[in-house]
Amino acid sequence: MVNVITFIIAGAIVLGGALGVIGFPNPVHAALSLIASFFGVAVIFTIQEAHFLALVQVVVYAGAIVVLFLFVIMLLGVDTAQDLRTEPLVGQRSLGLTFGAILLALTLGGLFLSGPGGEDGAVALTGQESVVRPIDAERSQIEQLGEDLFTRNILAFQATALLLTIATVGAVVLVRNKGGEDLVIDEPGRSVE
Amino acid sequence: MELTETWYLVLSALLFSIGATGLLIRRNPLVMFMCVELMLNAVNITFVTFSNSLRDLTGQTAVFFVLVVAAAEVVVGLSIVVAVLRRNPEADADDIAALRG
User: By three-state DSSP, how is residue A31 classified?
Assistant: First the structure.
């Protein structure tokens, strides 16, 4: 029962934050509701006993990634509210909402109409519990995760190392200011409206 | 009332749809990136849900890799956005076409 209440509150925060991201005209407000949404997801992870991932979710997503967003917003001074009342591309909003609704209907349809019924959830869909890498309740989860990462997934792990290096180099190359071209920085007093 | 996987999966579907809708209706490239992050989080919820219900660790490993790829994607994507917005601070999604050589 406690889990149900926690789930409902966390789910409301997740969905409310997500609606805030697409609803706020000002990108700074959107980034702040993104943090709320990420925290809600971390709570959902905690209910499901993925404690390490909940921690990483807060540190990496709510910490690093959103700070990166806010940093870019502030650096470029694009923190002015967008006019959401006018629609530059006629029909974009209604079409977008229609496609979103179709996507939701398809995913929910796939969830509730597939397999031998929704009652047993995932077990009903695939038939049986894990035999590949079962979770050992006796040992700590971070230990098992590390073991899985460094044995079965070592190639993927090294590939991500390469990916991160390439991403860092790419970011430096893209943003490097060659030729002494001046940065466009907003004048003081203009920024927030 | 018991908390089954279906609850989590419905939440995940809702979050994914909100993210996809936002990606389609918003025109600010930064907000569009945030919507992509929402969609990635929805997928992460699904992974953790199946990991928990099937008692299998593979789902959690997958979430780990999604996190890494999301970080790399944000780094490269934001630097492209910085490069575009630096020339024109009012740029929206259409102005990304200026990247064409």
Answer: helix
Token pair for residue A2?
């406690």
In order of A136, A161, B54, the CA distances from A121 in angstroms are 22, 35, 10
Does A1 lie in the same domain as A71? yes
Write the pLDDT tens digit of every residue in A19-68. 999 999 888 999 999 999 999 999 999 998 888 999 999 998 888 899 98
* CB within 8 Å of A181: residues ≥ 6 apart: none
The model's pTM is 0.86
According to CATH, what is the number of the domain B5-99? 1.10.287.3510
Contacts of A92 in chain B (CB under 8 A): 24-25, 27
Query: Which structural domain range is residue A147 located in?
Result: 140-177
Nearest chain B CA: its distance from A29 CA (Å): 10
| Burial of A59 per CB tally in 10 Å (0-12, 13-18, 19+) | exposed
Q: Is residue A54 part of a domain?
A: yes
Complex ipTM value: 0.90
Number of domains in chain A: 2
Cβ of B76 within 8 Å of Cβ of A167? The answer is yes
Could you state, in order of their start, the residue ranges of all structural domains in chain B? 5-99
